[in-house]
Design brief:
The complex is a heterodimer of chains A (about 50) and B (about 800). Chain A has about 50 residues and is mainly α. Chain A has one domain. In chain A, about 60% of the residues lie in helices and about 0% in strands. Chain B is an alpha+beta fold and about 800 residues long. Chain B is elongated. Chain B contains 27 helices and 28 strands. The chains are: A mainly alpha (about 50), B alpha+beta (about 800).
Chain lengths: ~50, ~800
């Protein structure tokens, strides 16, 4: 039965990892602007176009 | 150019490469691109020179016309004290700023502005937030300064708008709420998961692990951050409420939380049971979600504009030797001499000391559009705009004491809390009821079974926790607030809806609110149309060169007939009279009848070539916004409607027919508007004020609900409870109906919560409330209430707007 306790602790550790990831995402402001990144990803990296 | 007016009506129209608007002529070009104004051409040239021509490929409507943008003055950013206020972070090698760029509107803007480092060496990074129209810029102070950045942004068509307080400060508290929600959600899920053996009656099989074992302590550890971090807000709110002798909803919540936690701790430590920690963390989780849902705001709108957002941040102070230095507006002292450039606002009350030719446009303050002529030594007021030439002013009052700003300082300031909490009476009775019931239960069981007595009494406190009571309103009002947003009604907070459901007096401003400024007038020809068409381009060019509202109306009316202007030289403007230009051996006059050499008895604006009147501006009746009359009649059934306007009383009795004559008021100053609203309130009315300009600011603030009408980007709306776009004004009756119908949904949710509570309490009083029943009943009642509140408000919304066909 003791093995259950270990499993529980491991699973909790994993969950804490996700909680930390969530805190990190909020802390670095990833939820603050939900529109611009979706626009930014569509721009080509290759820059200069010398048309005409 | 020098073409005769007759030959100048071109069939094909040149479109400006930058902004896509029609070019007045082909004089501005580079390569095969043409431009409508120098501003657009400058932007184009800068972008081309820096290999940023792709800007035009990404979007056909990438550029915005530069014609309307005045020359912005950013020299005050050289003053370190002022620049520092804008800088968020600073060290030796880098400065960080966040500035508002109202011109941001599309993907091309993002593309271009994020390549700012290419345009300006020294700028390290520029990140755009398109929703907030904000740029976060990092730059190297050794290589570039804030003024250079601001000037470059203005040159490429994104003049920054500098504010005293960046809205960034507010976000800190929002983040903490998100953290709390995440944490309590984490604890809720895990505690429930770990309690599953208990739920299925397997606790005994798990033996020493469950009751009284390691598991209990594990759950206790998980619940500690919920109790002491995530839920701490409820305790402090309840405590402050108690200190102020007010019963807030937080009080019964805090009582319930304490009962839940102490009972659980007792059970776990004594090994008598698994505790109610799942219910505790679930309760906190749901309540916090309710808080978050209700704190929803429309990110791109600002409801808290105060005078500092309108007023210039800095002014030019004149030194005795004639040079000027930029100085912060609030540092202006009586006796200072300042210079105001044309187009700028006067930052403080003062006395006019020098001008060449000047008018001051007070439309910003009074709503009256015509510029007023001025004289030396005349008193001028902060908020006026210099129209024609620079003014010099001796400051007589500090900015914060100016006449206009009294609007913000006078009158009752509105309660800041725009949340929706159940009324104090309800909470008081509820708390008293729960406490009495708990005491009664204790007294009933105590003689027979002491242990059971405490168990049952705490169970009463636990199960009666008013989760549903606290959640119903935020979700019902919050949902409706979001739905109103779809119709163009952006309310500051859910609490405004409750106020909207109560209003019974409606007060409107006229110009800009009920009447839109477009399509007001049309051209009335005095010669045959063919001759008139030949002269029209000259008059259009004249009209467009002036800022006078009559000229603007003339320009609009002419543009509407399809005329294109020509290029003119040597235009003279006589303030308050009209415009005159000598062109092809003829005098062209545009203005008052007397100015044009016509009998001065005639009113209106005339266009005269030589002595021949060509056409005049035919005033149309007041042009109500779409659906204007119908919605006023509709509102009249609900309560009294009144009109208060800063304009002159018009000749017609148009408005008296719409409103009662005794409720139609003209020539109202900003102060009398405010007093009018306050008077209505004194007579026991709940007042809804709808206005637009700064001249309505006081009335909007005083009214129970102040709605600001805005046709533009909602950028320059005064402080208010809600912003709506002018075309949606006619939806007001529907909005009001939905707001007042919402109370039925609230009663319904209260009824449901009541039923759950009766079931729960019957278990509790009899001392048979097991943790599993609590763990099912409490989240279930919360979820039911949330669903009913959300669906219900959606139904109320669709029912009220059912004829809208959306």
């Amino acid at each position: 039965m003791k093995i259950i306790l270990l499993l529980i602790l491991v699973s909790l550790l994993l969950a804490v990892g996700f909680l930390y990831a969530f805190f990190w995402a909020v802390g670095t402001g990833q939820y603050e602007d939900e529109v611009t990144p979706s626009i930014r990803i569509l721009f080509e990296d290759a820059k200069p176009s010398n048309d005409d | 150019m020098g073409k005769s007016p007759e030959s100048k009506t071109k069939p094909s129209v040149l479109l400006c490469t930058h902004c896509g608007e029609a070019c007045p002529d082909d004089s501005l070009s580079s390569g095969d691109s043409f431009f409508c104004c120098v501003g657009c051409q400058t932007v184009f040239d800068i972008l081309k020179a820096n290999n940023l021509g792709d800007f035009y490929r990404l979007n056909d409507e990438a550029g915005k016309s530069q014609r309307k943008l005045g020359n912005q003055d950013y020299s005050w950013l050289d003053v370190e004290k002022l620049a520092d206020r804008m800088i968020r972070y600073k060290d030796e090698t880098q400065h960080h700023i966040a500035i508002e760029l109202p011109a941001i509107h599309c993907a091309s803007c993002v593309w271009l502005l994020e390549r700012l480092p290419q345009l300006l060496p020294g700028v390290r990074n520029c990140v755009i937030d398109i929703t907030r129209k904000q740029a976060s810029i990092q730059y190297d102070p050794q290589k570039i300064n804030l003024r250079q950045i601001a000037e470059m942004l203005a040159r490429i068509g994104y003049p920054p708008h500098f504010q005293y307080d960046t809205p960034l400060d507010k976000k800190q508290s929002d983040k903490s709420l998100i953290y709390r929600i995440g944490l309590s959600g984490f604890a809720f899920g895990n505690i429930m998961l770990l309690s599953f053996p208990e739920y299925f009656g397997l606790g005994a099989d798990a033996g020493s692990l469950m009751v009284g074992g390691a598991m209990g302590y594990l759950l206790l550890i998980l619940s500690l951050p919920v109790m002491f971090y995530a839920g701490s807000g409820f305790f402090s709110a309840a405590w402050y409420g108690l200190k102020a002798r007010r019963a807030t909803i937080d009080l019964p919540i805090a009582i319930g939380m304490i009962a839940l936690f102490s009972r659980s701790v007792y059970e776990i430590i004594s090994g008598t049971g698994p505790g109610y920690l799942d219910s505790l963390s679930g309760l906190v989780f749901f309540l916090l979600i309710g808080r978050w849902f209700q704190s929803y705001t429309f990110a791109r709108l600002n409801f808290d504009r105060d005078y500092r957002d309108y007023f210039p941040v800095a002014a030019h102070r004149l030194s005795p030797d004639g040079s000027t230095e930029p100085v912060a507006s609030e540092d202006l002292r009586p006796g200072d001499h300042i210079r105001i450039k044309p187009g700028q606002l006067i930052p403080a009350d003062g006395r006019l000391t020098a001008f060449t030719k000047a008018g001051i446009d007070y439309s910003f303050v009074t709503g009256e559009a015509a510029p007023r002529p001025v004289a030396i030594n005349q008193e001028v007021f902060a908020g006026g705009r210099a129209t024609a030439s620079p003014l010099e002013i001796e400051v007589t009052k500090e900015t914060s004491h100016s006449y206009l700003l009294q609007l913000w300082q006078r009158g009752a300031s509105k309660e800041e809390n725009h949340g929706v909490q159940p009324s104090e009476t309800l909470v008081r009775y509820f708390t008293l009821f729960v406490l009495t019931l708990a005491a009664g239960t204790l007294a009933w069981w105590y003689p027979t079974d002491t242990n059971l007595a405490f168990k049952a009494a705490t169970a009463v406190l636990i199960i009666a926790c008013p989760c549903a009571l606290a959640l119903a309103a935020p979700f019902a009002y919050g949902t409706l607030q979001r739905l109103f947003g779809r119709q163009g009604y952006y309310l500051r907070g859910p609490g405004v809806i409750r106020e909207l459901g109560r209003v019974n007096a409606f007060v409107f401003d006229k110009t800009g609110t009920l009447v839109d400024n477009e399509d007001e007038e049309s051209v009335d020809y005095h010669t045959d149309e063919h001759t008139a068409a030949g002269y029209a381009p000259v008059f259009l060019a004249m009209a467009e060169r002036s800022d006078h509202p009559r000229s603007r109306a003339m320009a609009r009316a002419l543009r509407a007939t399809g005329v294109q202007p020509i290029t003119l030289h040597g235009l003279t403007e006589k303030i308050g009279e009209g415009l005159i230009v000598h062109h092809h051996g003829q005098d062209f006059r545009l203005g008052k009848a007397s100015f044009c050499g016509l009998p001065s008895t005639k009113s209106g604006t005339y266009a005269v070539a030589g002595t021949v009147p060509i056409f005049s501006l035919k005033p149309a009746g007041p042009h109500l916004r779409p659906g204007g009359k119908d919605f006023l009649t509709e509102l009249n059934k609900k309560g009294s409607i009144a009109l208060i306007s800063g304009d002159q009383k018009p000749q017609t009795r148009f408005w008296e027919r719409l409103f009662q004559p005794d409720r139609t008021h003209f020539n109202m100053s900003p102060f009398s508007k405010q007093e009018y609203v306050a008077d209505l309130q004194k007579k026991g009315n709940e007042v809804l004020m709808v206005g637009d300009g700064l001249n309505d600011a006081g009335a909007l603030k005083t009214a129970n609900v102040g709605l600001a009408v805005s046709d533009d980007e909602a950028r320059f709306s005064p402080a208010c409870d809600g912003i709506l776009t002018g075309d949606e004004l006619h939806l007001l009756p529907q909005v009001l109906r939905a707001s007042s119908n919402l109370k039925w949904i609230l009663w319904l949710t209260f009824g449901i919560a009541f039923c759950y509570n009766i079931i729960g309490l019957s278990y509790a009083v009899s001392g048979t409330l097991s943790p599993i029943i609590a763990a099912i009943l409490m989240p279930l009642s919360s979820i039911t209430v949330v669903i009913v509140a959300t669906l219900g408000s959606w139904l109320v919304y669709s029912y009220s707007f059912r004829h809208q066909g959306r």
